[in-house]
Amino acid sequence: MKKSLVFAMAMALGVSATAFAANPFSDVPAGHWAYAAVAKLAAAGIVDGYPDGTYKGDRTMTRYEMAQIVAKALAKGAIGADDKLVGEFADELDNLGVRVAKLEKNADNVKITGKVKLSYSENSGGAVKDHDSDMARLRTDIFFTGEVNDNWHYVAMLRNQQFFEGQNESGDDSTDFQRAYLTGNIGVVNITAGRYNDFIADGNIYDNRVDAVKATVPFGEAYLTAEYGKMAGNGYTDTKYWNSDKNNWVSYKGDSDSPADKFWMAELGGTWGNWDLAADFIKADDVIAMGMQDDDQIWTVGATYHTGKFYLGGMYLAGDDDALKGAKDSDGKDASGYDDDGYVVKMGWAGAKASDPGSWGLYANYYDQGAPTVISHTMDGLYDSFPGEGFKGYKVGGNVTLAKNMIASVDYYDLKGKETDKHARTLWSQLVVTF
Length: 435
Known about the structure:
By secondary structure, the protein is mostly beta strands. It has two domains: 3-105, no CATH class; 110-434, Porin (Beta Barrel). It has six helices and 18 strands. The chain has helices spanning 6-12, 35-43, 63-75, 84-88, 90-95, 102-105, and strands at residues 110-124, 134-147, 152-163, 172-186, 189-200, 206-219, 222-231, 236-243, 248-255, 262-272, 275-289, 292-307, 310-319, 341-350, 360-369, 391-403, 406-417, 423-434. It is elongated, with a radius of gyration of 30 Å.
């Protein structure tokens, strides 16, 4: 850049252009537009002229010359070590002997945020005998977001969970490196790749981790999403599935890489006026969930209408029940005729916003889902208490922002099997703190 543009640089460095000082440069007359800034910078010892007493403001500066100015501004406290100019000219500053820690150079490139969730649930009903009666947990997620360039970011997440019931006196705990992915765009195509959390069909099919690649292309008011990868889940599976060799339901508990193996998914949706519309298709191999241990195919179509703070929506889901052919229910009856489809209806008013203390919301859902329409549901109710048959029932709840970045919520679920009519009731409460 031209040296005369040092006026703009002076403002960036926080050096006032209103204080007048004696000008040592013969080629910067008192009437020049940059006179005050150049004189001030010269008096502060930040810029130097040439031996002949000139400034040569029309001469193009080299990066090395600019780095010298940055180094002097840094030494005199006009800028800090975390200034973007220091990061930009880091290599030149190193050559000049100005040592800046790498962490300081890249301070603007990495952002750390977090979310803490304190939750408690109390469960009851004839279908929850295989579950703990209650659960108290503290979950802490720390996110690291690094800027690769203007279009791409790297995101990682570290999770610690404290379970206040367990084998140890103070409960059980775990710490895992849960997510690591790149997200950005190539032209109009938005891409996410790596291990991230996926939310399929409003969470009614899947809300958990995946190792995958997802691409979304917008066109007009609509979009098309395609995704391929493997379901990573939470690393633990506790369910039952029909074993055709043993002709009986078999419990599966223990470590598992995922609730399913490879999968691919496509979604077509968009927003038109007050309507949000979407249709999904997902094929997942080797599903271990809701009584299945086989391939599963699910398709959905849904719509949500918004008016003011109120919304009302519905979704139809249909799955493949091949895994249940020949299965028997707990009463010995043929289970192959169990529903392989279902629907979800939702409604709500407003909602708590972390940035708006005192804001609040109310919501309610009704579920009627066959087992083949679920892999890892987003709900906090015990939907997995009904392997093979699926579930129906409702959720009601509300949330409120107690203070900035502090949201409390309470949900109540009353679910029952679609065939056996056994209940699973859950009272769920949670406090979420973000920072």
